[in-house]
């Protein structure tokens, strides 16, 4: 019964992920990898959303569901594009809560666009993305835009 539940949940998540062609770390991240961030210096609401307890639980649940589905499917190193997008997005959102990033993946090549508030956050993007199994290459078009003081 647990495997069936995991499979059904995974199928539902896959359907939702396929419907979204890119994965965004926040609602105000670009809607596509060709998009621009509006008001990149305003990050307080983005940080609050990403660091909320409910959002952290959602991220953890998403990661667990994808891991369970991959356990059922077999090869842990093979990830479809929507899984890569979602896993990289979750990793970035959990570790860089002020970022406004959009993630797109195609055949293991992950593209990340958007803004972060400092160089340290920028420097962590690629290593975090490469921690995800199946990521072969990371292409970034991310700008550093200091946050405005609240």
TrEMBL record:
Q: Name one Pfam family in it.
A: BON
Source domain of life is: Bacteria
Biased composition (Basic and acidic residues) is annotated at 48-86
Q: What are the residue boundaries of the BON domain, all occurrences included?
A: 80-146
Transmembrane residues, as ranges?
A: none
* Signal peptide bounds: 1-19
Q: Does the keyword Cytoplasm apply?
A: no
Q: Where is the composition biased (Acidic residues)?
A: 35-47
Which intervals of the chain are annotated as region Disordered? Answer: 23-86
Give UniProt keywords alphabetically: Signal
InterPro entries listed in its UniProt record: BON_dom (IPR007055)
Q: Which Gene3D superfamilies match?
A: 3.30.1340.30
Q: Does the keyword Hydrolase apply?
A: no
How is this protein named in the record?
Answer: BON domain-containing protein
Source organism of this protein record? Lusitaniella coriacea LEGE 07157
């Amino acid at each position: 019964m647990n495997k069936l539940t995991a499979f059904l949940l995974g199928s539902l998540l896959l359907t939702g992920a396929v419907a979204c062609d890119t994965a965004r770390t926040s609602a105000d991240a670009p809607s596509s990898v060709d998009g621009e961030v509006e008001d990149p210096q305003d990050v307080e609401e983005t940080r609050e959303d990403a660091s909320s307890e409910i959002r952290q639980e959602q991220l953890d649940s998403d990661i667990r569901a994808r891991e369970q589905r991959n356990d059922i499917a077999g090869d842990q190193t093979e990830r479809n594009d929507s899984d890569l997008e979602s896993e990289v997005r979750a990793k970035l959102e959990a570790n860089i809560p002020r970022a406004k990033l959009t993630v797109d993946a195609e055949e293991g090549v992950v593209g990340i666009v958007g803004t972060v508030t400092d160089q340290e956050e920028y420097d962590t993007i690629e290593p975090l993305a490469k921690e995800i199994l199946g990521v072969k290459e990371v292409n970034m078009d991310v700008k550093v835009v200091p946050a405005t003081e609240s």
